[in-house]
Design a protein that fits this description.
alpha+beta; 10 helices; globular; 13 strands; about 30% helix; homodimer; 7-stranded mixed beta sheet
């Protein structure tokens, strides 16, 4: 733990104490005081490392993932509050845990921030992290505070599998049902609305979903329990993550356009923005952190999942998909979705 | 995992491909290929999360810590190679695990970097991380790559306690022996030599110790086994971290100047630099990641530890030390070391 770099002056327009005004120790003490404890947290934040006694509450293999949010690239302070960024930092990591079929239980957080960051923003960040930890059933076990020229938040989530094996990306088999739990396209539509400026008050639900994604954590272990053969968190958009799962499994995922029709909010947002194709948000919009999974044909889908397609074998020939294949790994009603310029330029044909 | 931000051109003076030239996926594949596996790593990097099967190899409570290195504040690319920064990022986290009395076994790493970073630097970083993992007996389980305007490396280390309880900062008792394992002041002296420019070739060992700290990981569990009552990693310098341990334990740590005499390299570096007081490096220089521990008076110190002082009770009165005390928590031969302006301005009186 090192102090935020001193020397910068607080922005007078903020009128609130900054990290350097408050001092590292006072801020860290304040933040630590906001985090609740839990039976498995034998030693929480404040020592050299946290000590977790998982045997009783969380038996089975440990699952671990880390992800970073960077200001400017992943969030804007004029569009997202500290609480929003805290929620997002925790959510994107817990979604990765859920996507293995595991339950998240613990989070570590490292904040890098300039010395003139209002201390209130850092406290809000902690409040958002704590709120999302509660929603996920997890606790903050430790962290770090560093100086830097830009804000970045790295979280590391831990979870446990219980007595089930992990659900990897590589287990999908031809004939499996493709299903999704959680929302698709709402974060991207909310971001588009923020980019267009004020005037979309009736569509605030989309903006809220962009600011604070709500991954369906419970659906991960439920999918594992229902026999899911493969699973992935759709952090980079449905098609892109479906492609990853398909290539890892050596299969093609054929999606059903009818099952992916934009909801009324997306249609209304598209009308408001003059965007011709709200389905683009559903197919390529990232950061919803839905769970995309495949199930054996005879599986009973958990209630959180809805079917959106089928797993197909890779067609024979030089254009075949698969780990190194160049053929389409994801199709929409049997038709390729990616052109030579990549999925970014996808438009329904 | 998100792509490095595109748009910047490679520095022609580098003449080597950058992150954006190589592409995220190719770089990540290349880096993952450099990391070895281990029996407890059931699923390594490449899926949504890693899966660790610790029950057999690493029973007991789990220990977890996270720390960030930021370019400019924690390292300079003209003074440290990518390998050096990788070693340092891993070492500072593993030292925190060892300071609890635990064995490090697993590391997760998140790299934030500008798009014009030479890909070779990122590969060197991975090589340094892998090298230090091997030294510590650990493996890389996962990571993240993000775009940003500055380089920062956040690592999260996991370790296990086996059948022993954690050694906290708060357990030191009056009469205990204060002891240290590892070097003191060498990193700070190496940094001072780098700052003074070329011409200190004979003192390259100090520069090497600054670039690649070598914490004595094994000494952590050995201290726990020998009954250590408290322990801390001296990342911020002996006095500052001794103060933390003393305040957490509600005691005073009295250090023995004779046991803290600068070694021949430090004396030579001070002469070379015209620095009057090489003992200042020993007492206040950070980033050596030595382990400072306290032991019961009758304990047999593990071979890696040397005694450097005694634990004393807090003297009665308003100036007492302790968690909220204002009195000196660390003394040198019984005399206070900190003045009104704080330890940063310490000079031996």
């Amino acid at each position: 733990v090192r102090p935020a770099e001193p020397g910068s002056s607080p922005d007078p327009s903020e009128g609130s104490p900054t990290l350097v005004d408050l001092g590292e120790d006072a801020l860290v003490d304040d933040i630590i005081g906001r985090y609740r404890s839990a039976p498995w947290l034998r030693v929480g934040p404040g020592d050299d490392a946290a000590v977790l006694d998982l045997a009783e509450s969380f038996p089975g293999a440990l699952v671990a993932s880390t992800d970073t949010l960077v200001e400017g690239l992943d969030f804007r302070r004029d569009w997202s509050s500290g609480v929003d960024v805290g929620v997002k930092a925790a959510a994107q990591n817990f979604a990765d845990i859920a996507a293995m079929g595991a339950r998240p239980h613990t989070l570590l957080v490292s904040l890098t921030a300039p010395a003139d960051l209002p201390a209130g923003w850092a406290r809000d960040l902690a409040a958002g992290i704590e709120a999302e930890c509660r929603r996920a059933g997890a606790v903050v076990a430790g962290g770090d505070l560093s100086g830097g020229t830009e804000i970045s938040v790295t979280a590391t989530a831990l979870g446990s599998l219980g007595d089930r094996p992990a659900v990897l990306r590589s287990g999908a088999r031809p004939g499996d049902v493709v299903a999704v739990a959680g929302v698709l396209g709402r974060s991207a539509a909310g971001l588009a609305l923020l980019g267009a400026g004020p005037g979309s008050g009736l569509l605030g639900g989309l903006v809220a979903d962009h600011r604070r994604p709500r991954p369906p954590y419970g659906a991960g272990p439920e999918a594992a329990g229902a026999g899911a053969t493969a699973m992935i968190d759709t952090s980079d958009g449905l098609v892109r993550d479906a492609e990853r799962l398909a290539r890892a499994s050596g299969v093609v995922l054929d999606l059903d356009p009818a099952a992916l029709a934009p909801d009324a909010d997306l249609v209304a947002a598209a009308a408001h923005l003059g965007e011709p194709d709200p389905a683009g948000w559903v197919l390529t919009g990232g950061e919803d952190h839905a769970l995309l999974a495949t199930f054996p044909p005879d599986a009973v889908l958990p209630p959180a999942f809805r079917p959106i397609g089928r797993v197909r074998p890779v067609p024979p020939g030089p254009d075949s998909a698969g780990p190194a294949g160049s053929g389409p790994a994801v199709t929409l009603a049997g038709r390729p979705m990616t052109g030579p310029s990549g999925w970014h330029h996808f438009h329904r044909s």
